[in-house]
Amino acid sequence: MKHLAFLIAFAIVVGGISTEELRGQDQSQNPQVISLHDAVTLALDRNYQVNRSKATVEAEDARVRSAYGNFMPNLNLSAGASQREQVGPLVIEGQRITATRSSTTINTRATSNVTIFDGFSNFSDLNQARYYRASANHSLQNTERSVITQVYNLYFEVFRRQELLKVSEENLKRSQAQLERIKESNRVGAVPIVDVYRQQVVVGNDELALIQAEQNLENVKSDLVYYIGLNPILNYEFDPAGVPTSLTEEEIEATMERFKDFDELQRKTVATRPDIEAAQQRVYATESNVTSARGNYWPTVSLGANYNITGETVSSIDESRTWSYGLDISIPLFQRFQRSNQVQQARVQVKRAEIEHEELRNQALLDVRQAYLALETARKQVQVTEQNIISAREEQRLAEERYNLGAGTLLDLIIANANLAEAEANNVNAIFSFQLGIRELEYLTGEELY
Question: I need a surface site. Which of 23, 54, 210, 352 has the fewest CB within 10 A?
Fold first, then answer.
C-alpha cells in the first residue's frame, strides 16, 4: 500500500513538471505579442512610480475630508460606574459603633463642541488641503506622462535595435559572399592567399558584430518587459504597428510644419504641462498656510453642550439629570512669539514654492527649445544619412568591381563595406532619433500622449 501511494505521488509530481515544461515550450513557440497600446496600458497599471503617485492622491483626499471635519461638531459619549465604601464611627441611640457604608453611582455623559470662529484658520486649512490635492492630481498626470514617454522610448528602441540587427546581417552576408569569391579567385591564382586571410578576419569581426547586435536587442527587450511589469523569463514579441522604420520627405516636412510656431510651443508648455500646474497649486497651498498662521492672532469662539444622567442602579440611572451649554471665547494675548514665528515660516514656504515654480517653468521652456533644436538636427541627419547611403553603395560597388578586375586592393573594398554598413546604421539611428524627438516635444509641450 505504501508503494502504491508513493507511485501515485511520483506520477503527480512528474505530470506537473511535464505540464509546466509543455507550457513553457508552447509559450516559447507561440510568444505573446505585445502592442504599443498594450505596453502603455500595462505600465500605467503596474509601474511603481504611478502607484506611489496614486497613493499620494488618496492621502490628499483624506486631508481634504479632515479639513471639512473641522467645520463639524464633535460628539463624545462616555459611561462609568463607581462603588464607594466608607468605614467609620456611627452613633445610633446614643451608642457609638463602627459601621461600613457603601454607595453605587452609575453615570452616562454626552458632550459636544463646535468651533464657530477661529480666525478663518479652518477655511484656510480647507483651501490648503484642496490645493495640495490638486497638486497631487497634476503630479500623478505628470508621472503617467513620464511613464508613457519612457515606454515609447523603450518600445522604439526595440525596433531600432531590430533595424540595426538587419544592417549587421546584411553586412555579414556581403562579407561572406566576398570571402567565397576571394577564395575562388585564390584557387585560380588571381589573388594572393593573404587576401583570403584578411577577408576571414573581416568575416569574423562581422560575425562578432552580429552577435553583439542580437544581444543588444535582447537586452532592450528585457528592459521593456521589466518596465511594463511582465514576467522577464517568458518570451514576447512586439507589434511593429505604430513604429515607422522609414520616413518620406513629405512626412518629415509635415512634422516640421506642425512644430514650426515656436512661440506657440512655449505657450502650450506653460499652459498645459501638469508638473508646472502642480507647482502652481503648491504655491496656492502655501499662501493658504500663511492665512491659517495669521488666524492665531484672532480669538477663538466655540459652542459646547453637556448632558449627564446619574443613578445608583441601571434601572434608576435617569434619576438625576444635568444639562448645560455655553459659549466659550479664547483670546490669545501672548504665546511666546510662536504666532509671529509661524507666520514667518509660512511666508518662507511661499517664497520657496514660488522659486520652485519659476525654476520649473524656465527649465521646461529651455527643454522645449533644446528638443526643438534636436528635432531640427534629426531631420537634417535623416536627409544627410540617406544621401550617404546612396554614395556609400556606389563606392562599395565600384570598389568591388575594381578589386574583381585587379585594379583595386582588398583594403579599399573592406573600407567601402565598412562605410556602407556605417551609413546604413547612421540612417537607422537618425530615423528613430527623429521619431523620438516628436514624442519628446509632445511630452514637453503637454500634448495628449495616449
Answer: 23
What pLDDT, on the 0 to 100 scale, is given for residue 18? 42
Q: Hey, what amino acid is at 47?
A: N
- Find the domain containing 66 and state its range: 30-76+113-444
Q: Give residue-wise pLDDT tens across range 9-37.
A: 444 444 443 444 434 444 456 788 999 99
What is the overall mean pLDDT for the chain? 85
Write down the pLDDT at residue 297: 76
Where is 101: in which H helix or E strand?
Answer: strand 95-117
- Asked if the structure places residue 131 within a domain, the reply is yes
Domain count of the chain? 1
- Residue 9 lies inside a defined structural domain of this protein: no
DSSP secondary structure letters along 361-416 = HHHHHHHHHHHHHHHHHHHHHHHHHHHHHHHHHHHHHHHHHHHHHTSS-HHHHHHH
Q: What percent of the chain has pLDDT over 90?
A: 50
State the cell numbers at 151. 515606454
**Burial of 216 by CB count in 10 Å (0-12 exposed, 13-18 middle, 19+ buried)?**
middle
Tens digits of per-residue pLDDT, 102-123? 667 777 888 888 887 777 788 8
Show the cell assigned to 162. 531590430
Strand (E) or helix (H) holding 229: none
CATH at residue 242:
1.20.1600.10
Using DSSP, state whether 81 is helix, strand or coil.
Answer: strand
Q: In what order do the strands lie in the sheet with 300-311?
A: 74-92, 95-117, 300-311, 320-330
pLDDT at 100: 64
